[in-house]
């Protein structure tokens, strides 16, 4: 599934990443059909100093190609929003690559608005 997300990862990498999550701040929700994983979303909550309330960040979200347009993504997104709101989040964000225009249309249809911000990233170590 990670390959469909353009981030191929080994099962061991995923296991190690999941082991680092903190249940009170991090959540991974999974959609299954017939015992097979067809989608997931990861969401994290964190307080910020620059704005009131708690920010929720979606850091991973993918639905397999065959399961798209069937409500799976919408259900995962709404479940992540509900989980975050239950932890005090007052807003939620998702970062999506410029080339993912289909995903952008989906987010907008769910009430998300684009921003005029540019993301900067630097590797450490």
Number of helices: 3
Q: How much helix, percentage-wise, in residues?
A: 25-40%
The overall pLDDT, averaged over residues, is 87
CATH superfamily: Gcn5-related N-acetyltransferase (GNAT)
Beta-strand segment tally: 4
Radius of gyration: 15 Å
Sheet with the most strands: spatial strand order: 1-2-3-4
Using the coordinates above, name the CATH class: Alpha Beta
Protein name: Acetyltransferase
Pfam family, one: Acetyltransf_1
Domain N-acetyltransferase: 1-125
GO molecular function, one term: acyltransferase activity, transferring groups other than amino-acyl groups
Keywords:
125 residues; alpha+beta; Aminopeptidase; four-stranded mixed beta sheet; 3 helices; 26% helix; acyltransferase; acyltransferase activity, transferring groups other than amino-acyl groups; Acetyltransferase; Bact_Acetyltransf
Commentary on this structure:
With about 120 residues, this protein is an alpha+beta fold. The protein has one domain (about 1-110): Gcn5-related N-acetyltransferase (GNAT) (Aminopeptidase, 3-Layer(aba) Sandwich). It is about 25% helix and about 30% strand. The protein is built from 3 helices and 4 strands. It has helices at about 10-20, 70-85, 100-110; strands at about 25-35, 35-45, 55-65, 90-95. A 4-stranded mixed sheet has the order 1-2-3-4, covered by helices on one side. The longest helix has 15 residues, at about 70-85. It is globular and about 45 Å long. The two termini are about 30 Å apart. The relative contact order is 0.14.
